[in-house]
């Protein structure tokens, strides 16, 4: 990655009441990239996000946004950031439009046309002039996204953004994030506890535990390919795989085998040749859950691969 | 800054309670006005007859031997005034009389301003909208200032409504009679400068108005609880006199703002404490006002937002 990072967390630490909630966090976020932020409950995700949005002051370290320190140049630095912290809390007694107008007035150069444009993008045209108190949770999420996008931020921070959206809404939301990341080069930082959600949405994940960054890595890049093979008798199949020197591990009624795609026909021929009954050969996607367990040090695949 | 005040103003008037406050201020003027008019027409007396009647009433009271010297001189003065009215054909000023009566309703204006001051910051915390408000390219100091100014403008508006509606209702119900308010100075019946006195009274209630507002604003923004702020402010304004009495043994009482916040004490001949003057009171109040503001600003600007 040769491009300049848009956001840098430098030695970010936070201590409250003698308890170190965040310790020496260093993360770089790049334009056009969607980064997932994972961690068990109480790991410090929300605290980190609050420091990145200026709601909390770090005890130590810096948040740098587009070259500007958030602590020293607050107004200019934050103007590049769009934020949804937890559930987007709106003024329920006003209409959706008035809410957007309210936030638009707090930014420079957000015109009425821009408000209309964003409303169209999030698909709220029909209900925008109704009071927010009549909205469903999903509609509030859409409105929350709209207010975060008003000023065309270079960097978008989202905390549990798909909470309350229906499946179609989640899908639409995901596509939309991918689009603004790809077309406008917006850097997106998403925290979520839904691993599958992060998996579908993100290019990269950062994992934190007990206030420390455990790992940060790209996902969807398979270093090796895996296939699921089901055959009887079982032990004979295992013996064959052993003989052919493949890494494999038992899974359900069969085995997950590390094997290249072009070697599959050869393996099938071998099975047929040995008269082992073959029921299934299918690609096995390593889920983020597996990777997550790997990172936190509890994965069985790690052991299998290192055999 | 203008846009921020516009925002606060918009949010304020989208709450039903705000309209109820204005309605109540108006109602508490029209209601007593109609009642007074009703009793006046029911008795059906001319003003000469009612003056005659009050002279007789006062004389009856004077026959009581237990009357203190102070009360006695008061009733004697009243009789002198009534006799002067009859002799010189000077009816009492009904419009000014009504307006000095509704001047008491300024307590309501102060109460409502206190409610707004107490909740304008704390409600953002309790609904969670503070996160949306503070992640904008606007410094916290500006946001707090816009809220303070909005509260002040709202209070002034209620003041204007009180004066305006009083004058209007007074004119409609009692007409602009050409009479005059009288008082006795050095045994001489003279015409009171009634409009000057009234304007002075309105100005003096401003002391309690400003101090209560700032105190409620302080408690509301430091403790983020509107009920605490309203309760504490009201408690102090009800028991303020008593607290000053209790403390009156000590010298320190001179430097407590409660001693001075009711500036109308200088209208009457006796102030709550001996040896204090208007300029001294104003100085003390100004110091406390600055103190309240400084604490409000520091706590609002330094706080970690965890709402």
Q: Note the main sheet of chain B.
A: 2 strands, antiparallel
List the strand order in the largest sheet of chain B.
1-2
Proportion of residues in helical segments of chain A: 25-40%
- Backbone structural class of chain B: mainly alpha
Task: Please characterize this protein's 3D structure.
The complex is a heterodimer of chains A (307) and B (307). Chain A is α/β, with parallel strands linked by helices and 307 residues long. Helix content of chain A is 34%, strand content 28%. In chain A, the strands form 3 sheets. Chain A has a 6-stranded mixed sheet with strand order 6-7-8-3-9-10, sandwiched between helices. In chain A, strands 2-1-4-5 form a 4-stranded antiparallel sheet. In chain A, strand 4 and strand 5 form a beta hairpin. In chain A, helix 4 (112-121) crosses helix 5. Chain A is elongated. In chain B, strands 1-2 form a two-stranded antiparallel ribbon. In chain B, a hairpin with a 2-residue loop joins strand 1 (182-185) and strand 2 (188-191). With 307 residues, chain B is mainly α. The model of chain B has no long low-confidence stretch (mean pLDDT 85). Chain B is globular and about 75 Å long. Chain A binds chain B through residues 16, 50, 53-57, 74-76, 78-79, 81, 83, 85-94, 98, 101-103, 105-108, 147, and chain B through 3-4, 6-7, 10-11, 14-16, 127-129, 131-139, 302, 304-306.
């Amino acid at each position: 990655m040769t491009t300049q990072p848009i956001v840098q967390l430098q030695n970010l630490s936070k201590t409250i009441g003698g308890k170190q909630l965040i310790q020496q966090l260093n993360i770089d976020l790049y334009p056009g990239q969607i980064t997932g932020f994972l961690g068990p409950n109480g790991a410090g995700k929300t605290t980190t996000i609050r420091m990145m949005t200026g709601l909390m002051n770090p005890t130590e370290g810096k948040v740098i946004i587009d070259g500007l320190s958030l602590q020293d140049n607050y107004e200019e630095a934050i103007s590049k950031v769009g934020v949804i912290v937890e559930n987007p809390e709106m003024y329920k007694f006003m209409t959706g439009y008035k809410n957007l107008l309210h936030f638009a007035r707090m930014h420079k150069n957000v015109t009425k046309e821009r408000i209309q444009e964003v409303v169209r993008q999030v698909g709220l045209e029909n209900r925008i002039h109704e009071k927010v108190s009549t909205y469903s949770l999903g509609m509030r999420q859409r409105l929350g996204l709209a207010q975060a996008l008003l000023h065309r931020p270079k960097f978008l921070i989202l905390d549990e953004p798909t909470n309350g959206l229906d499946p179609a809404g989640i899908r639409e939301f995901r596509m939309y994030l991918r689009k603004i990341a790809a077309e406008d080069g917006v850097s997106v930082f998403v925290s979520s506890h839904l691993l599958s959600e992060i998996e579908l949405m993100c290019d990269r994940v950062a994992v934190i535990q007990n206030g420390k960054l455990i790992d940060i890595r790209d996902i969807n890049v398979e270093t090796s390919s895996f296939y699921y093979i089901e055959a009887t008798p079982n032990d004979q199949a295992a013996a064959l795989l052993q003989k052919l020197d493949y890494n494999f591990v038992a899974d359900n009624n069969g085995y997950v085998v590390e094997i290249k795609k072009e070697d599959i026909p050869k393996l099938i021929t071998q099975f047929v040749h040995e008269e082992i009954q073959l029921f299934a050969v299918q690609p096995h996607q390593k889920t983020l859950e597996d990777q997550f367990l790997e990172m936190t040090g509890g994965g069985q695949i790690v052991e299998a691969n290192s055999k | 800054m203008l846009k921020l005040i516009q925002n606060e103003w918009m949010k304020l008037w989208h709450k039903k309670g705000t309209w109820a406050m204005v309605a109540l201020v108006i109602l508490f003027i029209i209601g007593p006005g109609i009642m007074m008019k009703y009793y006046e027409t029911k008795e059906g007396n001319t003003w000469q007859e009612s003056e005659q009647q009050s002279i007789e009433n006062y004389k009856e009271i004077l026959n009581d031997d237990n009357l203190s010297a102070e009360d006695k001189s008061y009733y004697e003065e009243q009789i002198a005034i009534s006799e002067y009215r009859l002799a010189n054909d000077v009816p009492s000023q009904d419009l000014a009389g009504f307006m000095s009566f509704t001047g008491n309703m300024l307590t309501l204006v102060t109460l409502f301003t206190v409610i707004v001051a107490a909740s304008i910051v704390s409600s953002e915390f309790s609904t969670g909208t503070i996160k949306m408000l503070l992640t904008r390219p606007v410094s916290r100091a500006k946001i707090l200032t816009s809220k303070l100014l909005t509260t002040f403008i709202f209070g002034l508006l209620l003041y204007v409504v009180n004066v305006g509606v009083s004058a209007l209702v007074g004119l409609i119900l009692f007409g602009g009679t050409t009479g005059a308010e009288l008082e006795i100075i050095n045994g001489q019946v003279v015409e009171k400068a009634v409009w000057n006195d009234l304007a002075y009274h309105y100005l003096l209630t401003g002391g309690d108005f400003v101090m209560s507002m700032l105190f409620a604003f302080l408690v509301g923004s430091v403790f983020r609880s509107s009920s605490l702020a309203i309760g504490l402010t009201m408690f102090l304004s009800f028991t303020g006199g008593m607290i000053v009495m209790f403390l009156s043994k000590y010298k320190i009482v001179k430097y407590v703002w409660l001693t001075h916040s009711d500036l109308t004490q200088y209208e009457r001949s006796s102030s709550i404490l001996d040896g204090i003057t208007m300029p001294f009171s104003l100085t003390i109040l100004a110091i406390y006002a600055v103190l309240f503001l400084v604490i409000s600003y520091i706590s609002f600007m330094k706080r970690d937002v965890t709402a």
